[in-house]
Design goal:
The chain is elongated. The chain has a 5-stranded mixed sheet with strand order 5-4-3-7-6. A two-stranded parallel sheet has the order 1-2. The chain folds into 2 domains: about 70 residues, Transcription elongation factor, GreA/GreB, N-terminal domain (Helix Hairpins, Orthogonal Bundle), CATH 1.10.287; about 60 residues, Transcription elongation factor, GreA/GreB, C-terminal domain (Chitinase A, domain 3). The two termini are about 30 Å apart. The longest helix is centred in the first third of the chain and has 30 residues. It is built from 3 helices and 7 strands, in the order E-H-H-E-E-E-E-H-E-E. The protein is α/β, with parallel strands linked by helices and about 150 residues long.
Length: about 150
């Protein structure tokens, strides 16, 4: 199933995968060997923790490889409507905010990176500057206006 990313978002996944394969997993393997050398494996918490960590690391590698293999990079230069990779300036509840529309894996609300799959992101997709709609948050309807797209 296709997963949509900006170039930067896909590169972050590739960087994380590289870090896991070249640094984190080799460190973990060394830790397992060290912990195993301490003796009785039945009651060796360090060994069991390291094995659990290895399992998580390998699962994350698989997750990243699947995402990278299924990635579709969005390079849409159309600034007439909201799409992945654009910045949407919106007026919401009297306050102007700018959000970059990104893939779920790139979302970071602290950096104003909003997933296109989030409730507000879904409603913004395809909207044009000047479009208005009602957005419901905790049973409260808020009027949202798309001010500009860049």
């Amino acid at each position: 199933m296709a997963q949509y990313f900006t170039k930067e978002g896909l590169q972050k996944l590739k960087d994380e995968l590289h870090e896991l394969k070249t640094v984190k997993i080799p460190e973990n393997i060394a830790l397992i060997k060290y912990a195993a050398a301490e003796g009785d494996l039945k009651e060796n918490a360090g060994y069991h923790d390291a094995r659990e960590r290895k399992s998580w690391l390998l699962g994350r590698v698989e997750e990243l490889e699947n995402a990278i293999n299924d990635a579709v990079i969005i390079e849409n230069e159309d600034l007439t409507k909201v799409h992945i990779g654009c910045k949407a300036t919106i007026l919401m509840d009297g306050k102007e905010e700018v959000y970059e529309i990104v893939a779920p894996g790139e979302a970071d609300i602290l950096k104003n990176k909003m997933s296109y799959q989030s409730p507000l992101g879904q409603q913004l997709m395809g909207k044009r500057a000047g479009d208005e709609f009602n957005f419901e948050i905790r049973d409260k309807k808020i009027k949202v206006k798309v001010v500009r797209i860049s």
